[in-house]
Amino acid sequence: MLKVLLSACLASSAVAFVHPGLLHTTKDLTRVKEYVNKAEEPWNTTYKLLSSNSLAQSTYTPNAQQVIYRGSDGTHAQNYPTLYKDVHAAYQLAIRWHVEGVEDYANASINILNAWATTLESIGGDSNGFLAAGIYGYQIANAAELMRDYSGWNATSQDKLKTMLVNVFYPLNYRFLTTHNGQDEYHYWANWDFCNLAAMMAIGVYTDNQTMYNWGRDYFLHGDGRGAINNFIYANFTEEGTGKRLAQGQEAGRDQGHATLDLALLGVIMQQGYNQGEDLFAEMDNSGLAAAEYVAKYNTGHDVPYTWYNSYLGNQTVISENSRYTHRPGFELLYAHYAGVKGLDASWTKLYRDEVNGNSTDKVEGGGSNYGGNSGGYDDLGFGTLLYRLTA
Prior knowledge:
53% helix; single chain
């Protein structure tokens, strides 16, 4: 089945995709550039944070590997940090090029992308390799999408990157979502599904592959795993006094590090769909908002209702306090859409966003390398205050 869909994906070509059209559109990038050029706040402060990042310098040198290992296979050392640092560098440099128009940043970004396009052959390790294929797959495609119209990046080089994404990342995305690594569809946590869906949709857009994009979108809407929105939302509640809906996600009883990760990845999926003209934010009566409000309320110190969840590790009878108050980027995107675009009440999401940003010296959302050196600090591309906030 994988070979059949892979062949269809390689053959499928769409002319209707919006480009750039993953996390950011031309309109978004123009807005950001205008805010920075006028030194308006908080966008200018966020841009200073990005431009001072060690990953966002034109002197950055990639460290591409032939095989990326995430998780132990008993033989090879894990080396996946080399990939996530390079990917974030390519993305940050691409943003700098769009804002400042300096070709040194564009050339540095495509130098990173070209290095991985011509070097990476596979992803190994244990089952955690699926996480690498998902998280870094959507991130590479987003960096490439920002650079696709740069005149200095020729079609031959872009085709090599597209081939690498389709041959290395996409098969793992598809295999995980269709087999769940040999387990039943509810065995894995939602973030595993979400990251692979985000990657499949992103690679589909960047490679102009309607079949691939549609498959990922349809899984999000109607799939059988926890990455389908109706399966991720495990319970719904009505907030006393406000009548607001709060939605418990699948990982609430696991820990709050992963519960917040779910919402960051959910935001990526919904934003990518929205920028292709499909309002995934609105699905199931704005369930993304209800889920964000639930997680945000609990992680800003307030009680929320909870329904027990029967995980493969056993019954989770209470909401987890593990990693409560964790600070993770990604909620700028959620608040910007639900409150800024739709005008909906997203007060708990705003409170969490402000607490995350307030923990930063610059009081804005950062990105890769601003949230520690381990992989969790690179799960989201970040800098949402600059890239998504519409009004001060």
